[in-house]
Amino acid sequence: MEENQLKTIVAQFAVEGTVERIKPLGEGLINDTYKVLTAEASEPDYVLQRVNHNVFPDVDMVMRNIGAVTDHIRQKLVAAGEDDIERKVLRFIPARADGKLYTIVDGQYWRLMVFIPRAITKQAVDPESSRDAGRAFGRFQAMLADIPVQLGETIKDFHNMEFRLEQLRDVVKRDPVGRVHEPQVQRLLQEIDARAHEMTKAERMGREGTLPKRVCHCDTKVNNMMFNDRNEVLCVIDLDTVMPNFIFSDYGDFLRTGANYVAEDNADMSAVGFNMEIFKAFTEGYLESARQFLLPVEIENLPYAAALFPYMQCVRFLWDYLSGDKYWKCQYPEHNFVRANNQFHLLLSVESHYPEMQAFIRECLEK
Ligand code: GN1
Ligand code: MG
User: Fold this and answer.
1) How many beta carbons lie within 10 A of that of residue 273, not counting itself?
2) Atom of ligand 1 nearest to the CA of 29
């Protein structure tokens, strides 16, 4: 999009300072993101984002959730006497016209937040930063445990495994782009089927009332965290999917990205695998800050969560491949299949480490 057009969008928000330049930022697969540079050193820079309205049908709900979450976290940080709070929680800028945290231009939804200076994002983590990431997500869940508003479900059934399998079965039945009969697809479908019962146990426990939902982040990829130059987590970003869910979401989705030896779309399946050093460090950090509120059933099922997310992502990528690549941006025709296959290989590796994971969690609890 033209820089001048972007400038008129930014002007709709209550910004401080003079906007000098706007340039693309990051590599999100869902939203489009730009950095907004202001002329004055005394004024903050900003991040401008176009929210993908197809993925998030109710942007108003997304932004009300985010407003509630960031306000609540800011209050907690103030109450705890923390320093440097502006770098530890996002601040969204209200629109001049109506004070809402977004504006609509030509049917597109835009929002603006303060750019966090001197922060680092990572595509991969070492054990030390994973331990801190574990603590950070445990803290994030703990801080939001007493948020006084009921958060909306910004994507209905987002991490509902039963629903994701139904979606896949539905596209298999319709086969809109004629990919279902590829032998590689058939093989993957069989593997998915063989695990479907085990992988949907969270939904069953939820229905039986033995597994609670808590406010979760629901997109705890490594690159959704900002670190300072000492390798410590400053804050958690990308809050669109913050909603009530089983805690498995945050635990499992971090490991899905953080503990894979390679990126989720690496096509060399022999390089894919689950890094137990990352698992151990992250689990230790997470339990340190979360064990005060986790139920035994949640802790016991952490290894299940580590398997669930590669499985779910495999199902989701395969669903998109069979649907004709409408959800994730693809660089080449097989891209979504490669992603699905990569996640399946990660799952195999996770499965092979089950006993070791269980033993490690027991050890952590005995400490
Ligand atoms: C999407 O937007 P991004 O890249 O952080 C997706 C996640 C997937 C991820 C896979 C709203 O996350 O659930 O795990 O891609 N977010 C949504 O790369 O679908
Ligand atoms: Mg992201």
Assistant:
1) 18
2) 4
For 144-160, the pLDDT digits (tens) are: 989 989 999 999 999 99
Q: Is the CB of 238 under 6 A from ligand 1?
A: yes
pTM of this structure: 0.90
Cα(268)–Cα(255) distance, rounded to whole angstroms? 19
Pocket probe mutation, ligand 1, options 30, 49, 223, 342, max atoms within 8 Å of Cβ: 30
**Domain limits, the chain:** 3-114, 127-366
250 lines ligand 1 (CB under 6 A): no
Q: What is the pLDDT of residues 277-297, one digit of tens each?
A: 999 999 999 999 999 999 999
367 CA distance to ligand 2 middle (Å):
34
Q: Are the CB atoms for 51 and 111 separated by under 8 Å?
A: yes
Q: Which two tokens stand for residue 51?
A: 């929210």
Q: What are phi and psi of 22, to 5 degrees?
A: -135, 125
Ligand 1 in reach of 219 Cβ (< 6 A): yes
> Which range among 149-153, 164-168, 186-190, 267-271 shows the weakest confidence by mean pLDDT?
149-153
Per-residue burial over 177-210, b if 16 or more Cβ lie within 10 Å, else e, is: eebbeeeebeebbeebeebeeebbebbebeeeee
In CATH terms, is domain 127-366 a member of 3.40.1280.10?
Answer: no
Residue-wise pLDDT tens digits, 256-265: 999 999 999 9
Fold topology of 3-114: Phosphorylase Kinase; domain 1 (3.30.200)
State if residue 30 touches ligand 1 by the CB under 6 angstroms criterion.
yes
